Amino acid sequence: MWTMIARRTLQALPVLLGISILTFILIYYLPADPARMYAGPSATVETVTRIRHELGLDQPLWVQYFSYMGRILHGDLGFSYRKQESVTQLILGRIPFTAALTLGGICVELAIGLPVGIVSAVGRGQWADRLGMFVALLGVSAPPFWLGLLLLYLLGYVVPIFPLGGAASPAALVLPALTAGLGGAAWYARMMRSSMLDILSADYVRTARAKGLRGWLVILRHALPNALNPIITMAGMDIPWFIGGVVLVERVFDWPGVGRLAVEAIETVDVPVILGTVIFTAVLVVLSTIVIDIVQAVVDPRIHYGR
Amino acid sequence: MAGPAPSVAGLTADQGGYLALVWRRLRRDRPAMLGVVLVSLIVLAAALAPLLSPHDPAEQFRDGLTLQGEPMPSTLLTGGGLRFPLGTDASGRDLLSRILYGARISLLVGVLANLMAVALGALVGSVAAFFGGWLEIVLMRLTDTMMAFPTLLLAMTLVAILKPSVWIIILVIGAVYWTWIARVVYGQVVAMRERDFITATQALGASRSYTLVRHVLPQLMPTIIVWGTLGIATNVMLEASLSYLGIGVQPPTPSWGGMIQQAQSFYRTAPWMVLFPGLAIMLTVFAFNLLGDGLRDALDPAQRGKL
Q1: Dihedral sign of CA atoms B60, B63, B68, B70 in order
Q2: Cis bond before residue B252 (omega within 30° of 0)
Q3: Beta strands B11-12 and A85-86: pairing type?
Q4: Exposed (0-12), middle (13-18) or buried (19+): which is B34, by Cβ within 10 Å?
Q5: CA dist A73 to A68, A282, B82, Å?
Q6: Global ipTM
Q7: Nearest Cα to Cα of residue A132 among A144, A119, A122, A145
Q8: N or C: which terminus of chain B carries fewer CB neighbours within 10 A?
Q9: B243 within 8 A of B261, measured Cβ to Cβ
Q10: Which of B154, B240, B245 sits opposite A278 (nearest CB)?
Q11: What CA–CA distance (Å, rounded) separates A242 from A234?
């Protein structure tokens, strides 16, 4: 078990290295000059040159890369000249909000997606299946920011149940989480149905039926645990898209998370913050895929990594 | 090789070519045909936008605003006949005309970005899998690294650095989306490279490049066609998301995502400004998803009805 975890973590190292190189290239080719931004618009050429020297921007590329890597490994993602605050501090302050939204969104995804998928698969071809899959495909096709605005209009304004954005009370989380989860719920419903259909035609399910177990017992006890395995894999693929959705949802509801920070940074061309959020989320994606692989190996003992 | 041609799903292969067979299967699939009809209608609407639009999409009408200077709802509801059938926006411009012209941008970006992504993804995926060695390691590590970045966030950052324009957006979406296709193609070619027909071709003295182009690529056509369709749906959504965040297609060019961004401050008083552009996005994404799903079933009948 522990060797598996260690091996899987080692496999992630090239990707983490790739992330650092790609983001470094992005910084290097940026049209904006960090020394000029640090010095401010009224600084003289001499001042800018001095600052460039102090920041190490006049050193060879590989020296700059290693000092950049060194800073990242110490948790230093740079300094926002616009906000006059360290990028790491800025991101840390936003994490609780994004974490709450992500957890809420995942709950919505699973609570709606899995039952719909199971019911659809069991009643394959019947009206509930057809309707369920039609609505699921519509749900996958609806832009999250549009769904969010519609929910705000209906449940925040016409029938004022929930607050109109912000993060002042726990009730403010409901609409953003619903918006973040609905598209994914539709996606999981389709995946769950497909996975369940594969399992339902397996021999051991037929055996369970043949020995006289009741229909729903067979599905819940025998088919469901195995049908969940591919769903865990798909959860890993879903993460990069889910975070994109979170960025949009945070913009709609003015939710003060990491995604909102990234959008603000892009609006104000705050380059260190843009790159800081990109690196942060990419590392987060890599770590969550490791966690998902480990969970999968625990759930399904047939999986052995690297053997 | 005497005897009747093998029959698939009750159809014999010798009634016309392979494409005719695929088309007959597609025609029996009602959701897929709905997709065909919707895609055709959207393409027609985009092509004929100058003829179908009641107004110039950029013209700001004096009677397009209420006396208080607010956007107007549909004139069908207010007794103004067909003057502004879907209402107007905050500048007094006709919403229907802007949505029709917006279809051009959505399809242009969706189709061109996806052509780029599919070409690049198929190339990288098949070359990596078929040639193996260091090419495989470098290309697939690059793919893994790119996939670790949340798709929307990476696209946002690239567009912000390169300054938004329609062509930059096409390039950026193509550049972030190819990895998904590379992954799928890679998996298929890895499964194919040990098969007998490849070994036989190699034994007969064909070069590896020749084998790749003449024997491997044709086998990939179903995948390329399916992703060539489903990918358009994803890319239309990505463009709309970027434009909603204000870093996509820039005003005054009408784009659906941009229209919703401008509508956000008016969603309580003028919900139609949010509703109709979002419906247009959803319908377009839905249509390409339906068609892509149908094509998958028609090209690979073993998967029929599963997803």
Answers
A1: negative
A2: yes
A3: unpaired
A4: middle
A5: 9, 14, 63
A6: 0.86
A7: A119
A8: N
A9: yes
A10: B154
A11: 12
> Hey, is B12 helix, strand or coil?
strand
pLDDT in tens, A79-120: 887 788 888 999 999 999 998 998 899 899 989 999 999 888
Flag whether pLDDT at B121 surpasses 90. yes
For residue B159, give how far its alpha carbon lies from the nearest alpha carbon of chain A (Å): 10
Chain A residues within 8 A of B306 when measuring between CB atoms = 193-194, 197-198
Alpha-carbon distance of A126 to B103, in angstroms, equals: 35
Q: From the CA of B303, how many Å to the nearest CA of chain A?
A: 10
Selecting from B153, B275, B286 the residue whose C-beta is nearest the C-beta of A262 gives B153
Q: Quick check: B114 and B231 in contact, CB under 8 A?
A: yes
The dihedrals phi and psi of B259, each to the nearest 5 degrees, come to -65, -40
**DSSP states of B234-286 as a string?**
HHHHHHHHHHHTTSSSPTTS--HHHHHHHHGGGTTT-THHHHHHHHHHHHHHH
Torsion angle, alpha carbons of A185, A191, A193, A196, to 10: -130
Phi/psi region, residue A254 (left: phi>0; alpha: psi -120 to 50; beta: rest), is left
Q: What is the mean pLDDT of residues B97-116?
A: 94
> In this predicted model, which residue has the larger pLDDT, B85 or A55?
B85
Among A67-76, B19-28, B266-275, B297-306, the minimum mean pLDDT is found in B297-306
Between CA A63 and CA A203 the distance in angstroms is: 61
Other CB atoms within a 10 A radius of the CB of residue B102 amount to 29
Per-residue pLDDT of A157-207, as tens digits, reads 888 888 887 777 888 888 999 999 988 898 889 888 888 888 888 888 788
Q: Alpha-carbon distance B119 to B127, whole Å?
A: 12
Residue from A182, A288, A295, A187 nearest A232 by CA = A295
CA distance A244 to A239: 9
Q: What is the pTM of this model?
A: 0.87
pLDDT digits (tens, 9 = 90+) for B174-228: 999 999 999 889 988 888 888 888 888 888 888 888 888 888 888 888 889 999 9
Interface touch A266/B245, C-beta < 8 Å: yes
Q: SS3 of A4, please?
A: helix
Contact A244 B31 (CB under 8 A): no
Whole-number Å distance between alpha carbons of B147 and A12 = 12
User: CA angle, B47 as apex, B270 and B56 as ends, to 5°?
Assistant: 45
